[in-house]
Amino acid sequence: MEKTIERPANTQAVHNKVRDLLKHLCNGLYEREEAVRLALLSAVAGESIFLLGPPGVGKSLIARRLKHAFADGVSFEYLMSKFSTPDEVFGPISIKKLKEEDKYERLTDRYLPGANIVFLDEIWKAGPAIQNALLTILNEKIYRNGDEDMQVNIRGIITASNELPPKTANLAPIWDRFLLRLEVGNIKKFSNFLTMITDVKDVYEDDIPAALKLTNAELDEWSHHIDQVEIGPEVLNTIQLVKIKLEEHNVRLANSGNPIIVHDRRWKKMIRLMRTSAFLNGRSKVDLMDCFLMRHCLWGSPDQQQIIRDILADAIAKHGYTMAVNLSSLKKETKAFQEEVEKEIRIPYTSSIAQLMPVDDEYFRLEKQDSKFQGSLVTIKQYRALSIDNPQVTNFFDEQKNLVNRVRAAKGKEENTIEVHHDSDKVIYRLETRLMDKTEIINKKPHAIIQKFWDERYQQLNSFITGQLQNMSENRPAEIDALDKNMFVDADFADIVKKNFEEVETNLRQLQLSLEKLQFSYTNI
After folding, report:
1. What is the pTM of this model?
2. Alpha-helical regions (H) of 151-263
């Protein structure tokens, strides 16, 4: 029985709401739009984001703005230090529970386990006890409160620091839990800087209309539909190719560099993130534009970002839709067909021909049978300028290249001969030649049975290509003309995706033309 895939009633309404919500969230912020958009995306996907940047660039502001996106949103914000205790983050021990019930339980209201949006600054300064509890919350949304597992309703966790986790500390597990990683720096454009410092708007004010705020029921419903978003073959092929390219990069580095290590869990979480992006953009299928979100998920140090960006761009530009239609395999099959036909119908024929032998690359030698005529050499240039029945004054030289005669001469009517007008006579001299092998290709008509087999093969290949072209035309991705409207990916990447789609179409038409020429070659001999 075929599985029924449920769809939300109005994906466009979801897109419109999120678009308007992002517009309000970014209002009054300058060059922080990408961070806000990715923070909201990670929250809806149920993931976490790490912001790397110096103090005073708006990392905490992003978290506080994000809180306003949620109806009845409760936020928890804390600046970590090496003296931070679990009581300050997860809540104090309930004295009443401890006395009356002998239970070790924390009062979590208004602390991290009771919040919807969490911002933890200087995360790497947290002690082991806090980090261990965070691991379970980040991965399973469960907080172990005493002897009970408490399901937390945290939508988004934003962490920040002005440094990466120290390599000497055992922070790899918690670092791996932050799916999205983004560098945040000072404002770069001077006009934005001046507007920011003179703007009197309260950027911490909650100015989000109630109708745009996201409710828990709404987010739960969206989560169900996000799981139903399709992953097309072009996306899966791109992910596979990127993974292979990363492994090749690591092999090239060997032990001399900083490898890009990505474990299976992170790949799975990236799929969820891309599905969320597709859903919030009003689509029921992940597209290649969503794949560029991986550039925020794969790096472990800032110097790896450009490498990952290049790998992603190259994979999508060269192989995005190409692999989806199996273009590489189609090219190989067409080439094999062409080689088979040419081997059968193009028969090489070798014959011997007389070829003039140059002397010092400047002269031709006359094969004279008498010694009455002085001169055994004629320049190649003069000989080639001669014509039949139209004598011209021609210079003749001896073997030492001395000019010894000037008489009228013309080309002989036989090939490789010269007609010399000497003493009122016309004497024909043959020029010195040598026999050379000449190979020609003779086209042979194929047997009727072979031609029938080729015709069937041609029809199969041609029909497949026609079907692919028709599919690309009729089922042209709805998003192909709106790639630059993706709310979570830089519009500059749209050209890469469009170029690949157009190149696949062009390559298919070129293959179809090659097949038509091939069929013509063996049917018209």
Report:
1. 0.71
2. 172-177, 190-198, 216-226, 233-253
Question: 295, exposed or middle or buried, with CB in 10 Å at 0-12, 13-18, 19+?
Answer: buried
Write out pLDDT tens, residues 466-512. Answer: 988 887 777 666 667 778 889 999 998 988 888 878 888 888 999 99
Contact assessment for residue 108 and residue 90, using Cβ atoms and an 8 Å cutoff: yes
- Measure Cα distances from 226 to 7, 248, 281 in Å: 9, 32, 11
Does 19 reside within a domain? Answer: yes
> pLDDT tens digit string along 133-164?
998 898 888 999 888 899 998 988 999 999 99
- pLDDT band of residue 3 (cuts 50, 70, 90) is very low
Same domain for 421 and 472: no
Burial of 370 (0-12, 13-18, 19+ CB in 10 A): exposed
199 plus 304 within the same structural domain = no
Does the pLDDT value for residue 438 go beyond 90?
Answer: no
How far is Cα 41 from Cα 47, in angstroms, rounded to an integer? 8
- Cα gap 28→36, rounded to integer Å: 12
- What range defines the domain where residue 468 resides? 327-346+441-523
416 and 454 both lie in a single domain: no
Q: Is the domain of 334 the same as that of 266? A: no
Task: Give whole-number Cα distances, 141 to 127, 177, 266, 349, 357, in Å.
Answer: 20, 12, 16, 78, 90
At 405, is the secondary structure helix, strand, or coil? strand
pLDDT in the model for residue 396:
95
Total residues belonging to the chain: 525
Distance, in Å, from the CA atom of 289 to the CA atom of 496, rounded to the nearest integer, reads 9
How far is CA 406 from each of CA 340, 368, 394, rounded to the nearest angstrom? Answer: 58, 17, 6
- Per DSSP, the three-state class of 31 is coil
Question: What are residue 160's phi and psi, to 5 degrees?
Answer: -150, 155
